[in-house]
Amino acid sequence: MTDVQPSRSRHCYTGHNLVPTCGILWGVAPGAHTESRGPSALARFERKTGRHQAIYHAYHGGTRQLFPTEQEIRIAHQPGQRRILFLNWKPESASWAKIAKGDRRTDAFLDRLAVHIKKNFPEQFFFAVHHEGENDVREKAGSGYTARDYAAMYRHVIKRLRAKGADNVVSVLVHMTYVPHAQKSWFSQMYPGDDVVDWIGLDTYAYSDPGYGHGQFSEVFNRRLEGKRAWPGFYNWASRKHPGKPLMLAEWGVWSSKRNPRYKAEFYRRMGSEIREFPRIKAMVQFETPSNQKGQDSSVDSTPAALDAYRKLGRLPIFQVAVTPRR
Q: Which one, of 322, 321, 300, 302, lies nearest residue 312 by Cα?
């Protein structure tokens, strides 16, 4: 790295279930929706932002590839640059309902996965099962994809992995911060239970153009919407419903706009002080892509001012947490 690293606090480090003793873990899913994911994308992101990333976020699906992969293990174990892996897995071989009842193909994969994890990666790591599940809920009897099916599937996956020896998995239940979903009568039925959920993750993005998702960090992260069922905001909801769970911004970013190119830098500049209003947030993971499925750009260097502001944000003491993975 060519830039000066921010000094890491001697007092903030990862403790039980990777919850930092103080401060906020800082991480990234680099090169998302591009061909250059992995070490090269991570190295480029760390060079341009001028600091080490405590969390490396990657995505997996199906029942073919075991993880962490060799490449991901090298990323986690890089000498002098230890990182926490955050691995998403989307089951695709059967419906949620069938997986919950013990789908043979899925269970065989989970058993192989548990053996692989126990043998090759004994450190704790973040693990999400089908993140943003509410986007795929089909609340119709027999669909196999109801909210209750999701909760049962999630329970089955976590309990089976742990029963087979992968007890180093730190589970993250990842929601979309999309208020219309949260206002559905079935939303609360998605929760799998405190015994299988270690962290609650929220995926939230700011939009540079006025409208939904535009405003200060507090408005973006803790969105409210008046209606038949008034929504208190995701932070308020999680704090009330699940007071014992640490919160993570499992994906976050600011979508660029040529019409409002200054917004991204301003958002980063304000965040350093505004984040202190949300002490339950213990990790933030940037979702870095030049173009998602809708062509939106969350790159932190979309403008020189944005990159400068993001670099300064990442240097703040609150984001300096030493990674001390436990087995």
A: 300
